[in-house]
Amino acid sequence: MTRILLTLFVFLSLSSIVNAQFSKGSILLGGQLSYSANNFTGAYRSGPNAYYGNFIISAGKAIKENTVVGINLTYGPSWIGDYSNYGLGPLRYYNAVYGIGIFYRSYKSLGKEFYIFGEAGAGFSDTYESGTDYSGNKLISGHTYSGNIYFMPGIAYKISKKVLLEITIPDLFSATYTAQNTWVQDMFPYRIKENRLYISTSLSSNPLAALGVGFRLIL
């Protein structure tokens, strides 16, 4: 039943729009913000052990009454204590994602200030990682470059004439290609170079677990 509803949801997102929301030339500014801290409790330590953040800034322009195109800028830092990977650990680990992308979005009015939309886009990102031991020696250093395409649907509510509140399913469909180049300073130092292709969809799991909340300002 869930998949049937989601299929209908996607179909409506891609259908032609009969009620325009934005006039041609309108500027939309918005973004998303998330932050979390995971706690660790053990024999020798308790308290926050990992911090994750994700910041997205979005700017778009209505090229016609029902269509917006624009760019996204992404920054996603994370810090993890007692991190283990590549046979090393515990480490102080830092990871940061810097990304830029373009998107195409269409809206359809549902009435009473509610709108449904579909967004397709593509992007490029650079993920930097660094891991040091508790003496300050750097044991992990590298970059992973990624290119992706995606589609996500969403619902928007017009709080006022200038503000939209949005709920999205970010991982409805995505395809990502990554190229990793990481240096590991072990007893015998080595370099990891891997290329991978990932294709994923939240239809195979619970899409409600991946809901995102954002906003748009209409200028």
Strand proportion, as a percent range, falls in over 45%
Helix residue percentage: under 10%
Low-confidence stretches: 1-20, 42-48
SSE string, helices as H and strands as E: HEEEEEEEEEE
User: Helix/strand/pairing class, anyone?
Assistant: mainly beta
Which whole number gives the mean pLDDT? 82
Number of separate helices: 1
Shape descriptor: elongated
Largest sheet: 8 strands, antiparallel, barrel
Q: What does the radius of gyration come to? A: 21 Å
Strand order of the largest sheet: 1-2-3-4-5-6-7-10
Q: How many strand segments?
A: 10
What is the rounded distance between the termini?
A: 39 Å
TL;DR of this structure?
With 219 residues, the protein is mainly β. The protein is 6% helix and 71% strand.
Task: Note the topology.
Elements: H1 2-14, E1 27-41, E2 46-64, E3 67-85, E4 88-111, E5 114-132, E6 138-160, E7 163-168, E8 173-184, E9 190-200, E10 212-218
Antiparallel strand pairs: 1-2, 1-10, 2-3, 3-4, 4-5, 5-6, 6-7, 6-8, 7-10, 8-9
Q: How would you sum up this structure, described in words?
A:
This protein is mainly β and 219 residues long. The chain contains 1 helix and 10 strands; from the N terminus they run αββββββββββ. The chain has one helix spanning 2-14, and strands spanning 27-41, 46-64, 67-85, 88-111, 114-132, 138-160, 163-168, 173-184, 190-200, 212-218. An 8-stranded antiparallel beta barrel has the order 1-2-3-4-5-6-7-10. Strand 4 and strand 5 form a beta hairpin. The radius of gyration is 21 Å and the shape is elongated.
